[in-house]
């Protein structure tokens, strides 16, 4: 009888111990303390919101495509398909684009040349930074010295020469064409580039970054090399 | 005698080593269940010391109290009343009372023992 009692108490104590340990584990779970203040959280929230709206936009555009397909199914499937192909080609940068945008000119700072500074080739890092800044300001099409920037574009140093799409950049000055979705966007980009510290970064490298007034009709050349594609394959017909 | 403590240690070790975690939503329920379990445990010890311990009462009280406490908390969440506070209050008060009674009983026993020793030494 007594032995039986001990067994039961042992069982109960075992359960109590287990519960306490689990509770302890659960309380200790956030080992890393959340030290973000309200502004960090706000920033994160706005970032997520932006992502949300981007996704919504994407969904809407895909819906439109579906609608178009459904409408044209009876009339002409081919037209819809070729339209999609055209749109994708434009998106990928395989076509010439005419639209609003602005031109950035990079030239050697003349006063620094007179002071005897040696003007070197622009570094890939600086160019990448500029590109990031442009895309941050909603740039859509960018061509650096006539080389269209696409998804697979690499800006890098090859044997001491800075290249875009493996084509060396011509000597200074050269121009960067930036296309935006609307003239208003181009104006916004113009203003924010004027205010950004990029111009200073360029001057540190002995360059002048000249930002020209936004234009309504800017022609940006197409990507002229074959688009290599290592991972996607065509689906066989009928599959 | 040491078997219950072994059980406690084994339970603690198992919980800590396996690092089981429950979703934070159920944290409240578990904390209340732990409180109820502790209350039952100390109630059991008190009953044992007062020689009124009953196995059935102890084991059924253990599970019933846990379920009742968690159920009250659950109901409270859906009614918008902090009913778990009632459980915490009740169990907390009883826990203290039980421990106080246990303490008194143990002190009395100690006193009695001392008394007996004194008596024998005087004689």
From TrEMBL, chain A:
InterPro entries tied to this protein: DUF881 (IPR010273)
Organism superkingdom: Bacteria
Pfam family, one: DUF881
Protein family according to the UniProt entry: Belongs to the UPF0749 family.
PANTHER family named among the record's database cross-references: UPF0749 PROTEIN RV1825, UPF0749 PROTEIN YLXX
Protein known as: UPF0749 protein YlxX
Source species of the chain: Lysinibacillus piscis
Taxonomic placement: Bacteria, Bacillati, Bacillota, Bacilli, Bacillales
UniProtKB/TrEMBL annotation, chain B:
Subcellular location: Cell membrane
Major subcellular site: membrane
InterPro entries per record: DUF1290
Pfam families reported in the protein's UniProt record: DUF1290
Ranges annotated as spanning the membrane: 29-45, 57-78, 84-106
Membrane protein topology class: Multi-pass membrane protein
Alphabetically ordered keywords of this record: Cell membrane, Membrane, Transmembrane, Transmembrane helix
Family in the record: Belongs to the sbp family.
Name of the featured protein: Small basic protein
Originating species: Lysinibacillus piscis
Designated gene of the protein: sbp
